[in-house]
Amino acid sequence: MTVGLILLAHGARNPAWAAPFETVLARVQAKRTDTPVSLAYLELLEPSLVQAARDLVGRGATTLVVLPLFLGGAGHVRRDVEPQIQQLQTQLALPIRILPALGEQAFFQDALTAWCLSVLEQSPEAP
Questions:
Q1: Cβ within 8 Å of residue 76, ≥6 positions away
Q2: 0.85 cut: is pTM over it?
Q3: CB 38 within 8 A of CB 52
Q4: CA-to-CA distance for 120 and 79, rounded, in angstroms?
Q5: Is the pLDDT of residue 35 over 70?
Q6: C-beta separation of 55 from 5 below 8 A
Q7: Residue 7 CB neighbour total at 10 angstroms
Q8: Could you give all domains of the chain from N- to C-terminal order, each with its CATH number?
């Protein structure tokens, strides 16, 4: 079994918006050279989730994991991403697991809280 990872970001009109996500992709690829990894976008940029999934299957993935790089999962993830994943599972005939959105992960909440607190500690004038 070869697991392929899709990092799924929202997308934006300005391609420069994608730079932080491309950095994360490059770092993951550098540390996991044995794992097919792709960055996909829900809208406005390419590749799409469908394109990325097909690419990873073409690179040997037999199961896919989708990590939504969204702060919340109640909107786009449930309304737009989950139906696409159900269709892809049928079309590609392979298991696809979607993880909770990044913002719903405890480690991310902890990191964001720590960052907020450090900003307050560094600032001479708290808001």
A1: 10, 42, 68, 70
A2: yes
A3: yes
A4: 36
A5: yes
A6: no
A7: 21
A8: 3-122 (3.40.50.1400)
